[in-house]
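Quick one: structure tokens for this chain, please?
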Amino acid sequence: LVAYSTEEHGIEIFNCNNNKLISNITNKHLNIDVKVSAFSPNNEMFAFINNQTIYVLDINSKDMIQMIDTDNEEINIISFDSSSKYVIVGTKNGRVLQYKYNSSTLLARLCSLPYVDSLENQISSFAFYNNYFACAGNSGSIHITDLRLHTNICTIQHNRCPIGALCFSNDNTIVSGNNIGEVRITSLHDTKKFKTVRTPLASIKQIIVMQNPDYVMAIGDSNIISVIDIKRCKIAHSKYIKLKTKITNIDLINDFYLMVALQNNEIINIELPSEVKLKSLIISNNIEEAYKLITQEPMLNDSNAHRLLEERFEDDYLKATKALLNNNDVEADLSLE
């Protein structure tokens, strides 16, 4: 199931396999004034901001769980943490605030970014990985915190380019995207060492990890999706997907489907080449097409299906070599078909 929020029709939940609408959730506070919102990772809650107030809604019962007064903070980003227990918000004046989803009391101020050249350093992006939380702002700095212990892990500052997107690829690596189209891969063990990949995106606003964690997808203020190989630090596909309208948001569903939200309010469901397809080609002995798929989709490199293909090819090659040594041309041809 896929859920999305609209300005005028509340939350709509549909089946991505047949595009059938399953449920609709409306609330008097969920209206055109709502500009930032987030679904919880456990798919049970929805949080949104209306007039500096945080509302937490139960998706199943459609009841309001909590209303949180933020003391007139101007909030421009909201998210649940990885455990779905906490609501984290970022403000235009550089503060990051933590609340429990069912309490109106401020639990912690996780971060306060300093002003830059007398200008507000607003929070622009979040990322979560287990207890790790990362945030970034217009100054180009990234702050990583342990949400459980409320301790600062590290602060990363490579330049002063505003950061529009963050994601953890694992517990040791954070990937960031800035407003000049650069993707930076930084190890948390040594934050002074990093790799930069320049993309065709004008301003990166979202990065997500793909089914193969060596690759990430990135979108910017454009109609294309780029794929970056963060292990080899290079562009895998500069224009992996190109659409007619600007892209506002992307999300992976079960690793096989890519949901793409467009600026014209359309949502497109794209089936991605997967290990399942690669395995089916191997099982049907369509080795040539299997290798073509890996060439087109480098994200399948080093997958279990890819290793199976290599083993299959090696077995066939050894059989053919043995047949040729025994002067059996027919058996050699059959082994390589």
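DSSP finds four helices and 26 strands in the chain.
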